[in-house]
Amino acid sequence: MRVAITGAGGFVGKNARVRLREAGVTEPIELHRDATDAQLLEAVSQADAVLHLAGVNRPPSEAEFQTGNAGFTERLVRALEQSGRPLPVIYASSIQAALDNPYGKSKRAAEEALQRYSETSRASVHLFRLPNVFGKWSRPNYNSAIATFCHNLARGLPIQIHDPAAPLRLIYVDDALTQFLDVLIDPAGPVGVLTPRLVYETTVGEVADHLRSFVDSRTSLVSARVGTDLVRALYSTYVSFLPPESFAYPVPRHTDPRGAFVEMLKTQDSGQFSYFTSHPGVTRGEHYHHSKTEKFLVIRGKAHFGFRNVDTDERYELVVEGGEGRIVETAPGWTHNVTNVGTEDLFVMLWANEIFDRQRPDTFGMKVSP
């Protein structure tokens, strides 16, 4: 399959080129807003489908809405008609096509031109009315407020919010492209004006709060719930705006004669991650917990784990070496320790199911071997 992409150099177009390559699509035919009629005809004559992403949303003058959206689309339709090939077309329209502002009118006119082409050629045309699109490679001060917020916050610059309660309807660029790719694979699906999947409803203030929490997490080490839904997409977008010199950042590192203890990441409700080192012969721990549990993973070295039940005096011990891929878990009510029984420094990764609270540490000293 060969896909012609209009607006190939834009925000969505850049993401689309990568996604198509990953899907095994032959190198797309790239078209830009300044493409001539001859270039449009040549492209559609070689393509098996058209992904129409070109458009303008912040032009210097209102007249450019018509030329950049409706006008360009009409030229594309003429090229399709001249080629005599009923190609499937996916158009990135806008929810504003339902409105009567200049931008909305230009997007609606583009939709109508494509619908006429569909009616006369029997080609499948899929008109996706997208809300605000955000994601990596978006342009600050152009594509969306989220792009501007991410750009500024990633560089320590202020952001301006006029109305925190202002509603936002959003779609993540990769979610939109997944749906576009589904249509390319099966163009026989629904046609006409389509509502995209996975649209998020939020407010400007909520988005800004999420983004600020990402900035703060580098100091507090407490991560937001960044694994699903809108927060996941916002976090990925924010990180994509980090300048390379900000890819790395320091975390607390505590050292004493035993070795080092380094905190890496804390979660809001699933504990924290750390690692520690111990010199040969050093013993750490010698305490128990009532509720806290921990998981230890030996990365390098040789560790002896000792346990004693604080009520029954039952004992247990084991030795684990780095590279085994073996988790050792502590249980409430058992005092425990970790001793470096090797000849090199011991490196151990540690997860605790709760963030350490100095006011309520749930940690009570007791030797395994009294």
Largest sheet geometry: 7 strands, mixed
Stretches where pLDDT is under 50 for at least 5 consecutive residues are none
Structural class: alpha/beta
Please give the CATH class of the largest domain. Answer: Alpha Beta
- What's the number of extended β-strand segments? 21
What's the quick description here?
The protein contains eight helices and 21 strands. By secondary structure, the protein is an alpha/beta fold.
Describe the structure.
The chain is an alpha/beta fold. The protein has helices spanning 11-22, 37-46, 63-83, 102-121, 145-153, 173-185, 204-220, 229-240; strands at 3-6, 29-31, 49-52, 89-94, 125-130, 132-134, 167-172, 192-194, 200-203, 222-223, 253-256, 259-267, 272-278, 283-288, 294-300, 302-309, 315-321, 327-330, 334-340, 346-352, 364-365. Strands 10, 11, 12, 13, 15, 18 and 20 form a 7-stranded mixed sheet that branches. It has a 6-stranded parallel sheet with strand order 2-1-3-4-5-8, sandwiched between helices. The longest helix has 21 residues, at 63-83. The radius of gyration is 29 Å and the shape is elongated. The chain starts with a strand and ends in a 5-residue tail after the last strand. The relative contact order is 0.09. The mean pLDDT is 95.
Produce the secondary structure layout:
Blueprint: E1 3-6, H1 11-22, E2 29-31, H2 37-46, E3 49-52, H3 63-83, E4 89-94, H4 102-121, E5 125-130, E6 132-134, H5 145-153, E7 167-172, H6 173-185, E8 192-194, E9 200-203, H7 204-220, E10 222-223, H8 229-240, E11 253-256, E12 259-267, E13 272-278, E14 283-288, E15 294-300, E16 302-309, E17 315-321, E18 327-330, E19 334-340, E20 346-352, E21 364-365
Parallel strand pairs: 1-2, 1-3, 3-4, 4-5, 5-8, 6-7, 10-12
Antiparallel strand pairs: 7-9, 11-12, 12-13, 13-20, 14-19, 14-21, 15-18, 15-20, 16-17, 16-19
